[in-house]
Every structure is written in structure tokens, then in C-alpha cells.
Amino acid sequence: xxxxxxxxxxxxxxxxxxxxxxxxxxxxxxEPSIKALSDKELRGKTEEFKKRYADGESLEDLLPEAFxxxxxxxxxxxxxxxxxxxxxxxxxxxxxxxxxxxxGEGKTLxxxxxxxxxxxxxxxxxxxxxxxxxxxxxxxxxGKIYRFLGLSVGLIVHGLKPSERRASYNSxxxxxxxxxxxxxxxxxxxxxxxxxxxxxxxxxxxVDEVDSILIDEARTPLIISGAGDKSTDLxxxxxxxxxxxxxxxxxxxxxxxxxxxxxxxxxxxxxxxxAVDNLADPENSELSHHxxxxxxxxxxxxRDRDYVVKDDQxxxxxxxTGRLMLGRRYSDxxxxxxxxxxxxxxxxxxxxxxxxxxxxxxxx
Length: 364
What we know:
elongated; 17 helices; single chain; alpha/beta; three-stranded antiparallel sheet; 50% helix; Pre-protein croslinking domain of SecA; Rossmann fold; 3 domains; 11 strands; four-stranded parallel sheet
């Protein structure tokens, strides 16, 4: 019965595509008239759309003509014409939904459609890529379309001055990575004076590889930290103690659960080594925490898998992408424990000053 109904009416996805194809047909019908425009007339469409939007027309009203204009601009600047499937993808992205496209179907070109349309509001559009290379490449490559149509294009990458960031965020369309956008948001929330902020009010974002950013790394927090005031000597003392311990005799380890704990023998050795009566006493909780972190550093955290040592620094390796996460540090003293293990300079444990997850950032 279910299969019969599906044959008669199609599944929900097929029905939705059929509905959206009506809009694609509207765009197709406009192609001859748009193609007949001169470069100056085509560029003038942007100001026309902005005025119509200001006069009360919605972006949905403008969508067919705006998409047709972007397609023609792409043909004239890049020699690339959007296919129907790319038009479908552009409509779906404008609606705030996820568009799944296969490799080679032109996701980069698809993004130009909703980016242009939403930039007409004057409130800015962010296009979020997975790394600085792609952000720079796409801002230059796809930027030819936007600039041809009279829009400004910004780029946010590592190493920019605040004034340069502010200028990029004030562009109609801004390319950058999720990390750069997220950390700029956190820094903006820490400034004293409003004029020192670099971002303007968040409006519309197109996220590349959304499954990675909003599923795999959804709960990954972006953290801005400040230096603490505690001495780092204890990390080295605890490290010298931990290397003497024997697996199963002094501690028990579960690599699957990523836990490691002292046995009774291990606790006795710790109490003797650090000259304390009872490691479980509240007054010794800090020492107990340091020992646990040192055990994790030595027996759970693997060099060149979880982290690398470069230029006398411990740098985290992203477990999803394998990229080095410069500037990121493990929390709760684990990073310092690894630094002591690798015999590099131990930086003081930091205090969290501002934090947000990718999931919460992109909800705003």
C-alpha cells in the first residue's frame, strides 16, 4: 500500500523538488531578456533590486529575477552557467535549509545565488568555509561575480588588524572560516567601547560542509582565555611521580572510555611521595586532580595523534580533520600536564573569559 501511494504521489522530497522547479522555470523564462542587457544595464539591476526591496518587495518576490541576473553575470565573468540543479540548491539555501550536493555539482557556484539575493538587504552575508585557503580562493574567484554586479566582497583570515576585519565585515558579502567568525564574535563581546567591535549585527550565513561544523563539531566550544596566577612547579613534580607508576599495579586504564585512575597501591605511593596523610581529603583535591591529568597525559594522549610538539609548543590535532588547531588548548590542566610530559615550557593554566559553541553561534 505504501509503495502504491509513493508511486501515485511521490515521496516528500520529490514533491518538494517539483514545487521548487516551478520557480526554476520562472528563472529560465527570464534568461532571454536578461541576456539581452548590456553590462551596464545588468550591473544596474542591483540598485533596482535594492530600491524594490526598500519599497516593500520581499526577497522571495525578487528571487527569480535576481537568480537570473547572477547566472548571466557568472557567464560573463567566469564563463560558467548555473544548471537547474544549482538553481534548486540556491533556492533551498535561501530558505535556510540544508542542500546536499555531490562532489562536482558546483556547491561554490550555488552559494553565489542566495548570497547575492540576501546581500540586497544591505545587512551583510557571511559565507563560511572550512579553511583559510578556500575562503581566500572563493572570495577572489566568486568575488568576480559580486563585484561585476556592484557588490563589495570581504575576506576574514588569520592575521588581520581590527580595522581590516571591520572593513571586511562591512562588505556586502564576507568570506571566512567558522573559527574566525566565532572568535571575532567573542572578542566583540569583550570590548569596552562599541566602536571597537568589528562585526555588525548577524544577518545571513551560508555554511559549507555544514555536517562537519554543526554535527561533528557542534558542541566544540570556542574559548578565549586569560592567564591564571598559579605556579607551574606542581605539574613537573606530578609528572616525575607519574612516570614511576606501573600499569595495572599502580593505575587502571580504559582506553575505550578514555579513563585512567590510581589503584590503592597507586594512592599509597602518591601519599608517600607527596607527604600527605590522605589523598582523598578535600584539601588535597588539587593534587589529586593534577595526578589524574598527568596520568591522562602519559597514558591516554598520544603524540602525533592527539597533539604534536612544534617550536617548543604542544599543538592540538583536530580529531575530525587532522589539522593543527593553533591557539587552542586542552582545559582543566591537561594541556599543562602534556607540556610537562614533553618537557617543554609549561604555560600557566588559563581562565575562561568568553566561550560559545558553533551550534549556538550559528543559531543567532
